[in-house]
Amino acid sequence: MLANKLIVKNKSSTDYGVFIQYPFTLVNTLPEITAVQIPGHSGDLLTNNTRFQNVTQTLNLYIEKPQEYETWSSLSMAIQDWLYSFDYQPIIISSLNDYYLEGYMSQAPVITPQDDMVATGSVAFNCKPYLKRIDDIDFRSVPSTVIGIETINAKPIFHIKGSGVLTLTVNGQKYVLNGVDDEIFIDGEKEWIYKHDLNQNRMPLAQFPNNDFPELVPGKNTISLSGKYSLFEYKPNWRRLI
């Protein structure tokens, strides 16, 4: 039985004749805890490292070789080129419905032909310990009130086109940006402020309370922006533990 398809970089696995075999099961994350054995003391001393571990998500595949690929090797290389990434990227699995994974390929595709047209195989991704909401993949306009439906805080990315002094207010906390030149991104997950890309550092512009980045909480959130700007959009990045 075929479970579902995989979408990466806006391309579907069905373009390569690839389907995820049934059953598909998510690998669950665990909190990172350091256990220390103490002589003469029964029971390890536990230290909570306040983070959750990445997971390795292996997908078992069923493959029907498309006509445009003459050999299994050529298809395998095409699949590897499609999935390869130097950074985390959205990993969309159709049966997850409202959520997607963020990961990178940690095991190249392994294809085992059954005959000239059909094969089985596997591929693995190293994934962050959260599922993110699929409607947060793209930027959208920022409303004045946002209702969080997940149970843990979100770390949004704000994108602003403007100049001069801008003040972002989230849930009553003011995040001031001094001397914005045309465009700025505030990335709460990476805890980084930049212009067009990560290499264009704009961290010195920030005056944030306790040097913390804005977060969105479960339930009601209020957001506003003051200053000279023409675009104000965001990715809320609502998430849940796997």
TrEMBL record:
Source taxon at top rank: Bacteria
Record's protein name: Phage tail protein
